[in-house]
Every structure is written in structure tokens, then in C-alpha cells.
Amino acid sequence: MGILKQGVAAAAIGLVAASSTTSAWAEFPDKPVTLVVPFSAGGPSDKIARDLAEALRKPLGQTVIVDNTAGAGGTIGAARVARAAPDGYTLLVHHIGFSTAPALYKKLPYKTLEDFEYLGLINEAPSTLIGKPGLAANHFADLRQWINANNGKVNIANAGVGSASHLCGLVLQASLPSKMTFVPYKGTAPAMTDLMGGQVDLMCEQATNAVPQIEAKKVKVFGVTSQQRMALPALAQTPTLAEAGLAGFEMSVWHGVYAPKGTPAAVLAKLNAAIRAALKDPDLIQREEALGVRVVTDARLAPAEHKKYVEGEMRRWAKIIKDSGETAD
């Protein structure tokens, strides 16, 4: 066979192979898709993932299951997805902790930037600084004086090392001259229970989970971590921590969706399109806004921009975590 004929034959084989690969995924998904949440059921990330799962059903044409695989600050669930078959049927919904884990943990069972396909950032949620109901302070200025007067004696709860409440507490600690004692729990629910019961003093928790307790007056609220005040009725009169005295303070908890590395491009394109459609669902938007969560509509919905954003967050948090000395084993 001549060189020209060999080239034509090779090209033809390549086209057939490409066509076969594309057609093999033409029916995706033809079975339920699983969203792995690396945190306990009932927490903020779980609520967000369940809202997303419901909104994804229509554009995907399939049932979407939420599976909680909690532990080690979200790293166990993330590792599970990194090892899953790269077929688009097992996805990860992870929050800001996805970008902080490399700095918090000496050894991760996966590589954050290499073992996943990035599918898009989906939302951002501010947190609230809340305190036990019997706390003497009623405003942040009073609280700040109380923390300074009790240097090292103030307890601040979190849902575990690497959780959003832990990270928010680190930013708060970095903004204050006085030290606080971090008290980690195995999840948001037990931490919130002890805060309401007065066993701990403070908690920096997502508005998603704090608003019901604030409305029921089971905790005191001292500020929100967003750049602007929140429109939620329960928080409309609550100042941002920046305007309350911590200049430049801002911390949002974002969530993104990820697939195992090597997932076919055709599948990734379908998943990204479905996520974009889900985030335009009026019911989803209404549910998210009711929780104080903003649905992402900007360029970070694109996989490349999502990954670029996470890289920037990794650099930002690496310094904060190093300065705090708060790392996991």
C-alpha cells in the first residue's frame, strides 16, 4: 500500500473510532446519576446538593441520587469520586474545602488539580457569626471587647477541620488580636446543638443553616460575612462584619461540581449543559435565595474558569492556613 493510501486508511480508521466513541455516549445518561456529598446529611452542602439534584432531573432525563460520604473534612468523599469510573455517573459536589484541603492535610488521597474534571461553580453563600443565647454581648462591638477581655478562653465551634465553619473561623481569628479556642465537631448539627445549649460560645456558620436558629432566637447573630448586607428578613438589619469593624472581611462558601479525570468530553459537555440549565430553574433559584445563597451566572460556570478560580482559592487559603497553624494530620 502506498504512503498516500496508508494515510487515507489511517484517517478513515480514526474517524470511525471517533464516531464510535461519540455514539457510545449518545444516550448518556441512561441510568441514574449520583451526586456524592462529602459531608453529613442535613448540613448546608447536603441541602444545596439535594436542590441541585432535583433541578438536574429534567435536563438529564434521569433520577439524580444524593449520596453522603462524610469524613476527614470532605476528603473521603472526594477520594471516592476520584477513584470512580470516569463515565459521568458519579459526580462530586464539594464546597470551598476542596481548595483548602491541600494546605490542611499533609497527604491527600487524590490530586486536586489533576484527578478531576471541573464542571462549573454553582453558587456562593455568605456565613453568619452567631453566638450562644446567653452571651452578654448584643452587638459585634461588644462581642469584640468580650473576646479581647477573655483572650484564649472563648470557644468557637466548627463542623470539623476543613469544614466551612472552620475556615470562616480561621478568617475571623486572623482579623482579631485575641486568640480563640477552636472546638471541632463531627458535623454541623452537633456543633449547632451545643451552641444553642451554651456549651460553646461562638460559631461561624453558613446562613443556609443558621437562619432558622436565628429566627427562632435560639442563637444571637453578630454579623454576616458577605460584602453587602443580606436581603433575608432574618438578616436584613444585621451588618456585615466589615462595616461592624473588621475592615475588608469577606468570606463566601462556594460549591462546585466535579467528575473523575478521564470522563469523555461528550459526557462532560452534557453535564455542563445540564448544570447550566438547572441553575436557571426558577424553583431552584427561589429555594437558594430563600437560604441566602446566590446562584452563579458568571464565567465560572465554564470548566476552565472554574478550575482557574479554584487554583486562586488554593493560593489564598494556603497562606491563611499556614499563618494560623491549624492543620489536620
From TrEMBL:
Residues 1-26 form the signal peptide. Keywords: Signal. SUPFAM superfamilies: Periplasmic binding protein-like II. InterPro entries: BUG (IPR005064), Bug_dom1 (IPR042100). PANTHER family: BLR1237 PROTEIN, TRICARBOXYLATE-BINDING PROTEIN. Belongs to the UPF0065 (bug) family. This is Tripartite tricarboxylate transporter substrate-binding protein. It comes from Acidovorax benzenivorans.
